[in-house]
Amino acid sequence: PAAAVMTAATHSAGASAAGTERPFFGAGQSREAAQSVATAIEKQRQPKEGALWGNVQASWTQAERESDNVRRLLQADGMSSWRPDASLLPPQRPANASMEQLLQYVPKGGTAWLAFGNSGVTEMLLNWAHHVIQRGYSRQMVIAAFDETLLLSLHERRLPAYNYTGALPITHFRHAPHLFHRMGYLKADCIRLVLETGRDVLVSDSDVVWVGDPLPLLTELMQEGATVGASTDCLDLDSDRDKTERPRSPVQCGHAPGNTHGAVLNTGVLWFKSSVDSIALARRWALETLNLHSPHSDDQGAFNNLLADGMYPVKAASPSGRVIGPVRGFGLEGLRLAPLPIDRFCGGHTVWVQQAGKPRRCVSIHATFTEYGDGGKRFRLLESGLWALLPDAYYTEGRFLTFVPPDPGADPMPCQAGEGVHAPGKLTAPCGGEDPAHGLPPKPAGKEIMWQEGLKRSVRLRANVALMARQVHALRDAMGIARVLNRTLILPQFDCLCDRSEYPDIMPSCLYQGAPRRMQIPFKCSTSFVIDTHKLQLMATEPTRFGMQPHKFGGKFTAPLPVRAHRFLADPRTDAAITRSVLDVVVGAGAATAPCSTSSTEQCPALPRQASNVQVLQRLQGAAAREARVLRLSDAVGAFGGWEDRPDESLLFNTMMEYYLYRGNWCCTSRFLDNNADNGRVYIQQPPPLKRPRGG
Fold first, then answer.
1. Do the beta carbons of residue 153 and residue 16 sit within 8 Å?
2. Residue 49 reports pLDDT greater than 70
3. What is the model's pLDDT at position 596?
4. What phi and psi, each to the nearest 5 degrees, are found at residue 434?
């Protein structure tokens, strides 16, 4: 089986360039890259059948199918047409270029920007490159390409690429942990290769977006003695800023002076100063990752374990406390580590839960704490205007429909006065969310519970589930009206009363473990809190690939139901002809007499509740409505009642809702209690059925 996987991986990498011109590859691969690839293959423990190989999680065929689906989502809306300005890039190097040659324009002691990946994340890497170019570091960046397909794609765009091919397949391979371990080895060894050229290195995953210049802050930390910087998964900004010596910090924030455990360093963003000690760390990290034998560990776990042995108890190594150490085990004096501040090197929870999707002070945004894979990450980046690779037509063409989202109301069970307030050097006690009348014994930390008990314990969860039902109802009805009018739906930014987490300690507060106790409730949340955004994008691009195959419906073809993320109308790239042409549509009682705005006497178009497709066309096909680029419904809950005619459209739409919208849930009071993931999920009540004509 191991040989079969290796054959598949090698075949995919080697055959990917078949039929293309080969001169670029004629010179082969640099000596040091070939050595790293050979070591990755030859020195790794050969896996047997089972979880490490990938049999338990998914078959190879299924993984390839899923990888293809993700790639189609990442390529949606014309993204593949993006090309950088070649005048900003360094001269192109051959496939056998060494790291020294690729970094010609980075002086010794300067900082190289490094990313890596295979074809499965091509679009994420192009997005990464776009933002690095915008920051002005186009001649300082290198992308390490794990297969020839990606290498050719980068070469075509003249992006600096390191030929790291030969050890990994072209598809996503997270399902096969031993290949993910191999990738981790190659990543760490590539960092070593950069450091050995005498350059510092700033390395980030493909799902990182650079929205500001990090080098001034990294220079400050280096002046305070740092030799390595690492982002963290800490979620509590007050705790992250607090350098008061103390034995404990919130979950995942254990890098404060005095802590004896609990730091979680995230290897998605790392900085290394070129030194003997940092080179030794990269080398040891690479080998530790290659030798992993647990399917539940990865390069990030190996990095944390490697540093944890010499890091605790944490000691401040600079007056500000921003640099800690020495971390023993690396050189005579040990490493000086800078846990990078979470409001500058931001994770997904910080941005999309605590900051309403806005970058604020971030210089980097790593799409962590994001559900639904790379498709989910793409949609979150769209929500923040950071998926930067779409053609002009995306922002200039089309007619649209949007709606005012349901009102969440106030926090139904807030923290009381004085509760949840951070005090330097102390842990903040939990507060808020819990129903004081539930009559149950206290819930021990870490205990998994059934979803029914979660609803009983948490007022916030009950209110959030009811809110989600209204949001799904509004979405369904707005989608129906958009379908009838043949308009693209612009999603609003929803509000939420409860976070999402697979860790059971989210109950009863409805806050992710380690998040600020007084986090704002309700908060502006991502669409992924309401609907599976992977499915949403399939519906918007190719519904016939999932569930809606024409043969199921007598050959009837289901057209995509296109959507835009809520950022669309506020995105500076969106044409003013769209943003200035918004017509309000009043839904419900009193619609006929409501003015469009306080400055206008013109009457708004109006829809009765439960409007049929015939009524929608009658009411919203007047001259003003036809000419408006955007129609905005005052309320969408109950706005659409269904079809009086057009049975095929009714049938396909209702079936599509069953596949894509109605199966959403809130997650989770438990992860896999009694071997059943559904025991921790609260499924949302479906909206009332739509009217269907005969045959629909």
1. no
2. no
3. 55
4. -80, 140
**Segment 484-496, tens digit of pLDDT:** 999 999 999 999 9
Maximum alpha-carbon separation in the chain = 82
Q: Which long-range contacts (CB under 8 A, 24 or more apart) does 285-290 make?
A: 285/188, 286/184, 286/185, 286/186, 286/187, 286/188, 286/189, 286/192, 287/185, 289/181, 289/184, 289/185, 289/188, 290/39, 290/40, 290/43, 290/44, 290/181, 290/182, 290/184, 290/185
Token pair belonging to 434: 């819990």
User: Which pairing describes strands 523-525 and 494-496: parallel, antiparallel, or unpaired?
Assistant: antiparallel
Select from 92, 97, 103 the least CA-distant residue to 274. Answer: 103
**DSSP label at 526?**
-
Q: Which residue type, as a one-letter code, is found at position 78?
A: G
Q: Which of 463, 440, 461 is nearest to 669 (CA)?
A: 461
- The pLDDT tens digits for 263-321 are 999 999 999 999 999 999 999 999 999 999 888 899 999 999 999 989 999 999 999 99
- Residue 41 sits at the vertex; the CA angle it makes with 38 and 45, to the nearest 5 degrees, is 140
Whether residue 498 is preceded by a cis peptide bond, meaning omega within 30 degrees of 0, is no
DSSP label of 252: T
Here the tokens at position 520 are 């704002």
Q: Which two tokens stand for residue 403?
A: 């709606």
Report the alpha-carbon distance of residue 610 to residue 592 in Å, rounded: 16
Alpha helix stretches (DSSP H) within 330-441: 348-349, 373-383, 393-396
Which residues, at least 6 apart from 312, have a Cβ–Cβ distance to it below 8 Å?
A: 259, 260, 261
Residue appearing with tokens 């930014």: 493
The type of residue at 596 is: C
458 beta partners:
434
pLDDT digits (tens, 9 = 90+) for 75-100: 888 778 899 999 999 999 999 999 99
The one-letter amino acid code at 234 reads C
